[in-house]
């Protein structure tokens, strides 16, 4: 893979966590006619769902982002990918001569506008693969049937709680080759998914060593990735996660972008077989050991935390005036891990830390 200078391809005008079609329409409309833009359906509230098709190769790749409306990092990454594939470069020409690519940048525009996981009917589209009860689910299924992809990329974000294995490294990027049955057996399509993930991981380990995880592969036929894998299409789940101090996810988007380019180059070059299932399985599974902030040395008796040595704090993402605010809340673990890691650790005995906790409203939580 050619060394990419990401700054040459990043669409800097599209940034932050709150991304709707309002933010990307101008860029999409600026693409040349070789990028075929069409309305493929409408959301519950009647907002257009769009796709962009480009390339003329035999290998067909379908990508969709913001199936969950509040998971926007991969949308920024596919915009950067479109910008890259609009460049007059030999390597780009080779991809476009080998592949036909179809991208749905925002599958759930109502959820994107509300900054919610679910659509306007409060349905998780990634649990609607069998019922197809929602218009957005029907749009994706029809695109899948009409486009007949050789590969599907299901693009998501994951929370800041995830670490890699049992290490104190955040899962900045995670992948999954979804299962197609309860026993989580392998099939030719699932093996190809694993091999393509191994290719992307080989590149990412040079960029963010130890910060790539493997998502849980419990089978659920209602999940779109599992459903497409059941239909024998190699499908990959991408999860954009946390990089140090990157709550806007404008660093992580670069790694998703580079992973997407690596995947297309691997498909184009027919080098998937150079990577193995064992390499995929060697990627550590995600843990859930991180919190955003760990507060130590509180006056526990005064603050009512007499049974704890620390207090874990997690941000809740709240939409306020078209911007995402990070609101601190006391965190309750589903199951408290043996060891807890924090993206920021603060000591109440330290004057600077104490002042920061006051200024950011966290001491109010502890009083």
Automatic annotation (TrEMBL):
Classification via SMART domains: Zn_pept
Gene Ontology biological-process entries: proteolysis
UniProt keyword Transmembrane helix, yes or no: no
Peptidase M14 domain span: 5-334
Organism domain of life: Bacteria
Keyword field: Carboxypeptidase, Hydrolase, Metalloprotease, Protease, Zinc
Cofactor annotation: Zn(2+)
Pfam families listed in its UniProt record: Peptidase_M14
GO CC aspect terms: extracellular space
SUPFAM superfamilies linked: Zn-dependent exopeptidases (SSF53187)
GO molecular function: metallocarboxypeptidase activity; zinc ion binding
Key word Hydrolase present: yes
PANTHER family: PROTEASE FAMILY M14 CARBOXYPEPTIDASE A,B, SLL0236 PROTEIN
Family of the protein in this entry: Belongs to the peptidase M14 family.
Protein name as it appears in the record: Zinc carboxypeptidase
